[in-house]
């Protein structure tokens, strides 16, 4: 197989699919090669190990998520708090589509990998942490904008953004555990409350009390 083939891309696509569906430990190199239609020798031309392939798949999954959902929504034209709500709505819609297509809610590909591998592989743990940090950065920017616009008072945007990411991961885990995407839709509506973001009607009260809840 020539160096200019799409073998690497097919291996990464196979890893994205199989590791998400069955976990890192549940998939071997032979099966990844078979799914990709790539000889094992070609696998080791592109990747030193299954871990390196898993990291490449993680990076691509995040690139796609960032470009097609995270950035367009959280950096969009809607008011900042509405963007956070829409972000959770988008996750609910994706989970609903997944359940319709496969019969299962798979949860968060990044969170699943972290839960399985963080205690065994520091490199995977650091890579997933980077993804979560970047998501928190998008949320923090939206919350900071809400503060500047007077929609929110008395919050630490960066710290509260981390609370939103933690809440997101919890909802994705629950939706996977119960195999129920409606959890994301119902409880996702409370994401702005988790962020500590008061509605417009409460901003004045927050200012009077110095931002205390």
What does this structure look like?
By secondary structure, the protein is mainly alpha-helical. 74% of the residues lie in helices and 0% in strands. The protein is elongated, with a radius of gyration of 20 Å. Mean pLDDT is 91; it is low at 199-213.
Q: Main traits of this protein?
A:
mainly alpha; about 75% helix; 11 helices; about 210 residues
Instruction: Please state the structural category.
Output: mainly alpha
The proportion of residues in beta strands is under 5%
What integer value in Å does the Rg equal? 20 Å
Main beta sheet strand tally, sense and closure: none
Query: Percent range for helical residues?
Result: over 70%
Secondary-structure topology with pairs:
Elements: H1 7-22, H2 29-36, H3 40-46, H4 50-74, H5 80-102, H6 109-117, H7 122-148, H8 157-178, H9 182-188, H10 191-194, H11 200-208
Helix pairs in contact: 1-2, 1-4, 4-5, 4-7, 5-7, 5-9, 6-7, 7-8, 8-9
Summarize the structure.
Helices cover 74% and strands 0% of the residues. It has 11 helices and no strands.
């Amino acid at each position: 197989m020539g160096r200019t083939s799409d073998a690497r891309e097919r291996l990464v696509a196979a890893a994205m699919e199989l590791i998400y569906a069955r976990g890192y430990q549940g998939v071997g190199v032979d099966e990844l090669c078979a799914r990709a239609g790539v000889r094992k020798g070609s696998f080791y031309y592109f990747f030193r190990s299954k871990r390196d392939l898993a990291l490449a798949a993680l990076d691509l999954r995040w690139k796609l998520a960032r470009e097609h959902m995270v950035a367009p929504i959280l950096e969009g034209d809607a008011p900042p708090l509405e963007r956070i709500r829409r972000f959770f709505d988008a996750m609910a819609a994706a989970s609903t589509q997944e359940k319709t297509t496969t019969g299962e809610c798979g949860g968060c590909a990044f969170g699943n990998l972290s839960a399985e591998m963080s205690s065994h592989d520091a490199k995977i743990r650091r890579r997933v942490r980077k993804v979560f940090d970047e998501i928190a950065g998008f949320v923090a920017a939206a919350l900071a904008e809400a503060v500047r616009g007077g929609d929110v008072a008395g919050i630490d945007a960066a710290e509260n953004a981390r609370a939103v990411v933690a809440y997101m991961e919890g909802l994705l885990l629950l939706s996977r555990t119960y195999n129920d995407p409606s959890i994301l839709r119902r409880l996702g509506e409370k994401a702005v409350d988790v962020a500590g973001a008061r509605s417009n009607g409460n901003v004045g009260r927050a200012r009077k009390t110095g931002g205390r809840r």
